Structures are given as structure tokens and as C-alpha cells.
Fold these 2 entries.
Entry 1:
Amino acid sequence: MPTDPPAPMTGQDTARSARFEQQVLPYLDAAYNLARWLSHDAGDAQDVVQEAMLRALRYFDSFHGGDARVWLLTIVRHTYYTMRSKNRQDDLHAELDEDIHPLVDEGPSPETLTLLAVDVGALRAALERMPPALREVIVLRELEECSYKEIAAIIEQRIGTVMSRLARARERLRAELGHHPKEVRRHDVR
Amino acid sequence: MMCDDARLLLHAYLDDELDAANSAAIAGHMRECPACTARYDAYATLHKALAQPGLYEKAPDALRQRWTTAAEAPATIVRPRQRRARMPLSVAAAAGFVAAMLLSGPAWLQLMRSGRVNHELVADVISGHVRSLQGQHLMDVVSTDQHTVKPWFEGRLDFAPRVKDLGDEGFPLIGGRLDAVDGRSVAALVYKRRLHVINLYQWPVEAGVPSPQTVVQEHGYTVIRWSDAGMQYVAVSDVSESDLRQFALAFQNDGSTSGAR
């Protein structure tokens, strides 16, 4: 529980709620999509979004215009990593994983990819095998259609980093698609 | 341009994020390099494949409903100034309740005062409850024995919380921890109801003004507040409202005899 006091409430709670519903709630799908892809699990994703929305509501007074989607997705991502940080091993693994996967292009030929890539199941499985740091940029760019600038704001990195990470992520995804075309999904929704 | 540079830049080119000069350089390179062209085509295919709607995970209805009704939550707080004319039965009942509160004087003032901080406090305790369920935050002292839990708080708080095991009533005590509500340190007792967790917060308030029990539901959690013998109690959980009411009742039983302070 944060020790800093919540934003002071005025007599305009109802107006505030209405503003929150109008400005933030439209991005509930975006929030869930990111949380779901980060956490692998539908139940965990709901917990992450629930907590993120509570935080967003609590700190809504500090949101002064701007892009509500970027603002909410930043909170969702923070919430996910805070909740996950209890699992140190998982964290460590993700970083190591990223280190040992530099920019290498050993994917299958483009012809193979064309056939594989249209299969949603294979794409999903390949995405879920990727480390979170790479998966999140793919999700933000390809699924959420964020610009590099928006991604940079959400993952709190420079645009140059976004560009190189996205390149790495796509090469990794392409390699995953080639290496495990038939593997059964490991992270089925319960 | 070298293929190594192109391998990085073709992604930005694909995403239409390159300036004119670099775009021209990439396009020029691809005209001469079949390998990079093939690469680009592969990522363009991947880009299209990832745009399939089946991959986008929409928020479940239950989650959406929580937040759509949540926006109306502040309106559910009792409004003292209702007119009597042409109101539905439920509002009439509420007005009757309010009238009773008006007659009782100080209690009404207390309700008004608490009404103002209600929403903030409810958000605070729910947030605390959710946080307590993550990782190892749930308990600082793990014990089902009230005589272990109560002394643990000694020296950690400026008051002695009331600790009761309610195992016989179906709410076994499993531990306690320090928490913060509304900017002050409070005692949090942790109880179980089957697989659910109930957090009971308590802290001292001005004695002598008992405030009535209030029940608020928000974001799928039930929050019950009451005060007794100079202590403010707030119970929060995702169990059903009737279960939490039963819990509050069980805790209040024998309240006056077991030394609340």
C-alpha cells in the first residue's frame, strides 16, 4: 500500500468519475490486451488490469490531458512488472534470454514463413515463447498499433532503443515461427 | 548502405517511421539486394499476419462490468437531502433512515464527516487488500493464535488492536501485518473464508461516537465499516456480502467484554 496520501477529493467526485469513464475506460481493451500478453494467463491479466485501473483512478488527478491510452498502458506495464518482481527467477531468466539473443537472422526462408505466419495458433505460441521485453514491443507495435514515440513513452526508453528492440523482436519471432511450427501451445487459457 | 544497417532500418521503413533520406537509402539498397528485399517481404507478411483480430485480447465482460458500474459507485453513498415528494419506496426508506440519523444528532454529524472520506478510504482499503494478496505482502506475523498475533503489534503501533480468532465461526485467523490507511499506520488482521482472504483493518478513533455500520461494494469487493469502543474497523474481501456481514457480526460479538483497547 503506498504511503503517500491519495489525491485530495473535491466535492466533484461524480464529475471526476464521469471524466475517468469517458477518458480512460475506452482503453480497457488495450489495457487487457497488453496485460494478457505480458502475463500469459487470463486470471493474472485480470488482476493486473484491476490493480492498474485502481492506480489510474487514484492518480487520475495527476493526468493532465495528453494521450490517455499511453498513460494507461504505462501504468499497466508498471503494475505487471511490480506484481511479477516477486518472482526473481523469472526476471533473471528474461534478461539472460535477451542477452543470448542478439540480432541474428537464422529464420526460415520467406516462403516457409508465408505459410506459417497466417496461422493464428502458431503466431500465438511463438509470441508466448518470447521474453517479455521483446514480446511487449511486438504487442504494442503490431497489435496495439502504437507509434515508436508512443512505445518509447510506454516502455520508458529512447526511440532508438525501440527501433532496435523491435527489429530484434521481429527477428526472434520469425525464428520462433520457423523452429517450432507444430509445438502445442503451452499457455492455454484455463 | 550495408546489409547490416538495412537489417535494422527496414523495420522502421516498414513501420513508416523513417525520415525521407533514410527511406530513400533503404529503397535504393533493396533495389540492389535481393536478400534484404526478401527479408523485408517476410516482415511485411509477418506484420500483416499479426494484425489478425484473433490475436487481440479484448477485456472480459466481467472486468468491463466492474468498471462501468464502478463509475456510479459514488452515487450510492447515502444522500441526506432527498425530497419526500414522489419518490420510490427505496428512496423513501432511505429518507426515513436519514431522518432517523438527523434526530440522533452527533451520529449524523459523524456520518456526514465519514461520508466525505468514504470513497477515498474505500479505494484505499481495496487497494491495500489487493496488494496484500500479491507475493509475500499478506502477513508480517503468521499465526493462528491470537495470543501470538496481538503481542506482535506491541511497540509497532500506538494502540493495541483487538485480535480475535473466529475459527469456530468459519473465519480462522491466519496472521497480521502493519499497513497504512488514510495516511496512518493501522493493524491489519488476516482471516480466511474457505479459499478467500479477508483483511480487517483497525485503528483508534475518537471514542463515544459510535458510527453505524456501512456497506459499500466497489470493483467486486465488499467493504464493511463500523466503529466500536473507540476503534474504527474496516473489513474488505471478495467473499459474498452476506459472508462478510457474518464475519463483521462474529467479530463484534462480545465486543464490549473482551477489552477493546
Note: The longest helix of chain A spans residues 159-179.
Entry 2:
Amino acid sequence: MTANTLVNSKLVCVALNDKAQLAALDGTFNEAPYKKPPTQPVLYYKPRNTWSVDGAEVEWAKDFDGNDVAAMAVGASLGVVIGKETCRVSADEALDYVGGYTIVSDFSLPEESYYRPDIKGKCLDTSAPVGPEIVTADKVANPNALTVTVSVNGEQKSVFELANMERSIAELISIISRIMTLQAGEIIAVGFAGDRVAVAKGDKVEASIEGVGTLNNTLGGA
Amino acid sequence: MRHARIVFDGRELDIDIDPNDRITTSEGEVLDVALDSDQITWLPPVKAPGTIFALGINYADHASELAFEPPKEPLVFIKHANTLTGHKQVSYRPDGIEYQHYECELVAVIGKTGKNIKREDALDYVAGYTVCNDFAIRDYLENYYRPNLRVKSRDSLLPMGPWIVDTADIPDANALKLTTTVNGKVTQDGSTKDMIFDVPFVIEYLSKIMTLNPGDMICTGTPHGIVDCQPGDTIVCSIEDVCSLETRMVSEQEFYGDKY
């Protein structure tokens, strides 16, 4: 965890919140090991060892034999920063609890399975840069209308309109706040494009949201 | 030596407890109070809680109880401090569910930063051991990042404590009797010797993936013997030579009060 992380105590990420990805995986969800489609948001944590900042290098992961892994991937999300204690709120009032917005890049091993918590893939040191800053909520009129782009070495690789999320920001805050009481400064990464972007050692990754900023990071290992 | 965090006489205190149950604060003040006194409010024993790692199906008999093959590598999931509560505090049962059970577990508390820690050095990174009750709600299980956050990340459903016992005081963490009682009746009777992946293995495993830091915790899973718990039940999770953790179940409405 970097000393100047923007995250306070918790970074919750929402997987499988891209409608197109859900449609593409629909057949798979009825097979083992899933057996039926998810009925609830699919959530995971990026723990504190992953938290990093704008401009930081992201470590290239090692496998269990100590060798560099063959492949890594990145997805980017709007980061919803909780502004005050949020406990069991309704979707109608949920946005009143948002203090601001930022960007979360989630570097990981390629997503292969959603069956078990992906500790090996997702909990890599420095793999969750958050930034470049927190834009206060009053500066973002309609967060569900934002578009998240990911560019690698200057070339745009992914465009995700939040209008294509299965569940809106307010729905997610409401549902998550009925699982856990959220505290000021905790961040929810509300949705990633279903197709993660492959990255290589030394790549420069830019995650951008108009009005929120651009988060720049470089892969290590080069 | 044992270490805990309490509220006593209106003050939040870090305390040490000696073999004669004498309590000394971090300022050196001796407290004239018995360990079982109602004047003590027990807080979760880790002062600055970090990442909480919990193991699923880490006892072969529990794996068969749940109709799972024992895993070939640890099944690890993550929890955060919102789930923690202390000894003699309450945990809640969500409304409208069929099956919520306790999980009595040995917890290793990380005391030193490390990455790529070798199994033989692993205990150097453990500050001590405590007990947790890693409640689960089976109704909420789905096969996505299972056990999912809806099952395992709820407020108050990870009571821990009452204290941390120094690593040096537990010569073999895999030879400890583990029992749970519900309203005084023994419902779980096992031993940490039946753990599939022991603490040194898990530390080596996790630290190959990521850096472990002081305040991180590893909850090592539970053996056979789980039963449904209802509001009003008193559950006591005990591990020999470590501690006994008492929890009272309440309803969701009682727990959340005005926020319900």
C-alpha cells in the first residue's frame, strides 16, 4: 500500500456488471461450476497491499515458481467514493451518500473463472492504482452517463459506457450497504468493460473518464 | 503473555494479561478487575486491523460435511474490519433466512511485513493467535467468487478474541482441541490437527502472491459440526490454550436499531 493512497479502509469491485459480457456468458452460467446465473452483484475486494496511485509503476506478477507470469490484463472503472457512513440506504437516496468520484484501474492475471475468490489473480501488490484525484460529487451531474476508456501506449483499447451497466451506481450502493456498513473514503469500483485489456511489460496504461480525470500507470518488468 | 483491547471505566485500553490473569495497561497501570467482570467491554483484539484472510473447507471432515472434495490448494477469501466484533458482543441473524452457522477458527495474527516467506520462517511473522467465529449464511451462497461477500462480509459476523496469545506460548498450533457450544451444549468437537493447510503453509502461499503486513489476520477454517443459530442463542467458540469467544445472536432489527 502506498502512503498516499486515496482509498480509506476498503476497495470493493463489482465484476460482471457489463450487460454485453453477461449476455455473452449467459450459456456458461447455466453450466458447472456456476449452474445458474448470478442473482446478486458479483463483488470482490482489492485489499490494501494492492492500493496504489497515479503515476506509479505496477509490478509485473510472478508465478509460484518465482518466474514472471506470461500475461496480465487491466480493466478500469469509475470509483465511487463514499462520503459518509452508509448503512442500509435505499437506491433512491444512495447518491446522497457519495462524496466524490475517481478512477480505479484493476490490474490482474487474465480473468479465467469467477467461481472462487481470485486471490492469485486480483491481490497482486500495487495492482489497484486509484486516482488521479477525487472529484467532488457536485462536479459530476450524471455519473451513470460517463464513459470509461483504456488506452495502452497511446492506442485506445477499450470503451465502456456506464449506461451499459447491469446495475446502476445507486442500486449497487444500496445493495452493498445492506451487506456492509460503508464508511467515508471507502471506494466502490462499480463496473468494468467485460473484455479486459491485455498488457505487456513496460506498457503505459491510461484510464480516462471525462470530467473525472486520467489515471496513468506503467507496467514494471521491462 | 496475552494481549487485548478493552473499554474499562470509560477508557479504551490496550492491555497485557499475565499468567495469573493480572491486567496491566500499556501505560503500566494495573487494573483491579477480574477477567470475567461485566465491567470490561471487549473490543476486537487487533488494534489496526488489516486484510483478513479466511480459509474455506480447510478441514477434511468439514469438506465432506459440505459435500466438497478437499481442496488441492487453499480456498482463500477476504474480509474487512466491518465484520469484526469483540468477545461477549452480539452478531445478527439476517431476516428471512433458513441456515446460519458459526465457524470456530484459529486465527494467526501477522506481526511483521513479509513477501515470499518460506514455510520454515513463517512463524517469525506471526505475532500470536486468537479465536474467531466466521459466521456463514448458507442461503446467500452463489457460485460466483464463492463464498461471496453477501455470505461472508456482513457487519458483526466475525467475532474475534477476547485476546491474542503470543506465538511463543503455543508450541504447536496444530495440536489444539477446538470446541463450540450453543446454549451450553457441545455442537462442535474437533482438533486443529485436522487442518489441511496449516498456518506456515498458508503464509508461504499467500506471501508468494502478495505482501503480508502487521495487522493482517489468517482465519484457518473450521472442522465438522455446524448447526443453525437463532436470535437468543449464546455461542462459545473455544480453542485450547488460546481463548474462548462468547457471542450472543440477535435479530437484524435488534442489531441495526434505528438504521433498520
Note: The helical segments of chain A are 19-29, 91-94, 119-122, 169-177.
